[in-house]
Amino acid sequence: MRRALELAVHARDAEGEVPVGAVLVLNGEIVGEGWNRNITLADPSAHAEIGALREAGARLRNHRIPDSTLYVTLEPCAMCAMALIHARVARAVYAAADPKTGAAGSVFDTLISPQHNHRVEVQGGLLAEESAQLLREFFRARR
Predict the structure, then answer these.
(1) What is the structure's pLDDT at 66?
(2) Taking CA 93 as the corner, what is the angle to CA 15 and CA 1, rounded to the nearest 5 degrees?
(3) Whose CA is closest to 33, among 45, 20, 21, 47?
(4) Three-state secondary structure along the chain?
(5) Half-sphere exposure at residue 123, Cβ-oriented, CA atoms within 13 angstroms
(6) C-alpha Rg value of the chain to the nearest Å
(7) Tens of pLDDT along 57-116?
(8) Which residues does 124 contact at the CB level (< 8 Å), separation at least 6?
């Protein structure tokens, strides 16, 4: 999660993006990293989680990444949650909850819904205060 926080700071400082970072780990090794780039790329799907999944898929030459864990600084939205399900990610660990669009239990329970053919184990709150502070400061500065 510390690396994901570094990527969130990079998103903010290098690209002026909402500070969210994500790291995908498989067998103890980082296989994908991402940070929010939807403004930079003019791409509404360029969230941190999607970037990490894309990098891992290219590196592993597979659209499925079973037995992996995603660490992300903000609770995934519904789009990212479905991407995690389609990629067969085993576990998602997020820092700060997202009470407006969170799909890992705050607003929706997408990752653990029995309606899907795959469920993602969810853990929230790891380094939550650090991530939440980063987000608060970012939005306070923009107002």
Answers:
(1) 98
(2) 50
(3) 21
(4) CHHHHHHHHHHHHHHCCCCCEEEEEECCEEEEEEECCCCCCCCCCCCHHHHHHHHHHHHHCCCCCCCCEEEEEECCCHHHHHHHHHCCCCEEEEEECCCCCCCCCCCCCHHHCCCCCCCCEEEECCCHHHHHHHHHHHHHHHC
(5) 9
(6) 14
(7) 999 999 999 999 999 999 999 999 999 999 999 999 999 999 999 999 999 999 999 999
(8) 75, 93, 94, 95, 97, 104, 105
- The CA distance from 49 to 45, in Å, is 10
With 0.85 as the threshold, say if the pTM is over it: yes
Tell me which residues are annotated as active site: 49
Instruction: Give the Cα-Cα-Cα angle 131, 105, 11 (nearest 5 degrees).
Output: 30
